[in-house]
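pasting input
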Amino acid sequence: MTALLEVKDLHRSFGPVKAVDGASLTVDEGSVTALIGPNGSGKTTLFNLITGHLRPDGGSVRFGGADATTAGPAALHRRGLTRTFQQARIFPQLTVQENLVVASGFTWRELFGRRINPRDAEAAQRLLEEFRLAHVADLYAAELSYGQRKLLEFAAVLMSKPRLVLLDEPTAGVNPVLIETMEQHIRERNAAGITFLIVEHDMGFVMRLCDPVVVLDRGREIFVGTPAEVQQNPAVLDAYLGA
Amino acid sequence: MHALIQGIILGILTAGVYALMASGQTLIFGIMKVVNLAQGAMVIFAAYLSYQLFASFGLDPFLAIPITTVVMFALGVAVEWCFLRPLRREDKAELSLLVTFAVALLLEGVMTVVWSTSVRSINTSYANSSWTIAGYQITLVRLWAFLLSLVALGVLYFILQRTGFGRAVRASVQNPESARLLGVRSEAISALGFGLGSATAAAAGSVYGLLYPFNSGSHYDLISRLLSIVLLGGLGSIGGAVIGAVIVSLSSAIVAATISPVWSEMTFFVVLLLVLIIRPRGLFGVASRGAI
Amino acid sequence: MGAKAIGPARGAVFLLLVGSLPFVGVQHWVLNMLVFTLMYAAMSSAWNLVGGLAGYPSLGHAAFFGIGAYIEAIWFQHHSVVSGYEPFYLLPLVGIVGAVIGYPFALVAMRTRADVFAIVTITLLFVGQTLAFNLTGLTGGAQGLAIPPAPFSADSFERPYYLVLLLLLAIAMGVTWLTMRSKVGLSLSAVRADEDKAAAIGVHVGGVKMLTFCVSVGITAMVGGVWAAYESFIYPQFAFDPLITIGIVLMTFLGGRGTLWGPVLGAFVLELAQQYLAYTLGGNEYYLIAYALVFLVVMLLMPRGILPTLQARLRSRRRRRAMPDDPVAEPAPPPIGSAADYAVSIPAPNGSER
């Protein structure tokens, strides 16, 4: 396997707080990599650094073999790296269908075409059926339940045919049935060639789905291994229990 | 060279007055996230009040300040209570701009009815006396106005730093949620904060009336300067407002002294645009959170 | 889906109906009132592109009205008016110049959001007024500028201005309609809801914002040009008038921002009422107070405007019928014209999530 994403020695402080302090990790093409760690270990900051929402103080990020350290979110999105947010960031004043279409990315010429053309509608419909959201396609996204919003954001991310998707706690606050659905979708998409990097607290979810697992503590990785190895590693237990 | 230094002196003295007005406005933003477009009209209203007190009772504008301060404070609380509190939270940021603009128009209308549109000025006995130091002329009124503004800013600083009210205000500016949990009554703080912000218009108004002739329409000119100042310094930052006032007044005065008074009116706008190109949030801008 | 085919038909009927009024013997004072109403309807409609669809509350549009007026006036200091139609021929140029001036300004101003944007734009208005007063060589300063009056017959003097303004209104509404139906409109809705997220998922945020702003101020400048020709004498304080900005914004808010018909409805209700009051009461000094009070009452009672309020009510009824007991349904669907996200849509420029 080749590395799709390489993070080397990344640093970022907020005032005196070193949120990310020398973190390195590799995400192999075709993997479902998990990023776990106790609260405040810097997972979300690391996500923000990788996706260009924050600038690192030091270190480097490479994506698809090219440097991506200072690229902004829009540029990275064009290169096939996209993400979801912990609190699903959808467009509440757009309909569910429009949320998908707007995320599909269009050229200047398409910009002046129909708001939703038959091709858009078809692509959105396919995805919505897959995610069992077809019945709410014409509702405003603001009218969705919390779990449905997370599904919608996930579906929207897939519209642009990404290479790497970063999911920030896809199951937090979501009911068990939806968690299973989410897991299913990730599996299917991964089989279709999309690589995932997932921040997650639900250990069962991580153990079933991810390999390898990267453990982060105090802003740097302390362990990388299979789910089974992680569960037996004393340093990991320490980080969760001792801190 | 002489003109330049004269311009700098004038600019610094003027800056004090603008700093006072702008600090009230930025304070209101810090507390309520409301850009008070009526601040200019409030200053003019206070100027009319001290004009009237002087014309009717011969009360010196400087001595009238305690009275006008009380009136302006009450006016601010009333405006907050009548027009801003009823706005729903999600509409507040946008609608408050329009509502305070409407309040400005309302005040302008009232002032037009009461004092007509003819230009007034407060002509005290000392209005035209000045000192000359090393060939540079310093108008007495301007110097006093400057000192008074410093005192008023000091009082404002004291209120915010040393009183329970001030602590509550600062807490709710920095973190409204936890302040509420700690028992700070945000509604009361909003009303008092708006009152306090308006009260700064009282001292500023007396001074403004002494320095410049004015009529009910003068608030447009005033508000555009004030807005530039608070944006320059960064909304919500009092220190930023003071520095913004210095930059705006100095650059205007220098341009007026060296190039032409016509272009001095434009200076603050150019400075503002330049700053916004580099820092869209102003020099000391605070994002969605405020800081004082 | 049928509603989409009705849209243009409804627009055509409205325009034809309004367009026929000058030919059916409507009195001069009524036509004069309607000229101003159309002026505001066109400008509100144009403002709605920026203030409603993109969610950028510009308070500086009156500056472009003034710019348009002064371009007309300055041009006819050096050219003569023979047939009376020359000021109209100049309008495309006025629109283009307005848009070209708007571009660099928007490039800076649109780096800011919400209230800061409103302030930066209103400052432009005051600067415009200052310039008009002070550049006496060009603008005549406080003396104002005259445009030679058109030799139209007194019977139908208003007619050409009326029709040209109606045309501008049609253009503004047409542009709005096309925008809403295209992906430009979709992108603008995303910008309005969450600009940072929109940029991050590849929406051409800067492009659509600039385009919309330039078109909007271009139309506004053309309206200013017609106004200058109609008045045939302009002064800085009336060409660059904060009350024009406020009128535009208020009408759009009253009717419903982000909708096609809202700004037009708002303009017809408010401007007609205002003109009628001014006509019957005369230029009373209580006028400003009354205006401000009406303004405040509208803001406090109908913060979302007439049309969105009605639409939300209709929609929730239809929804209740469609899905009687869906657990998903939450009680308060925000209508499209809601500002629900203003408070949260002002994140720090370089990402504040941690």
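fyi Residues 26-241 of chain C form one domain.
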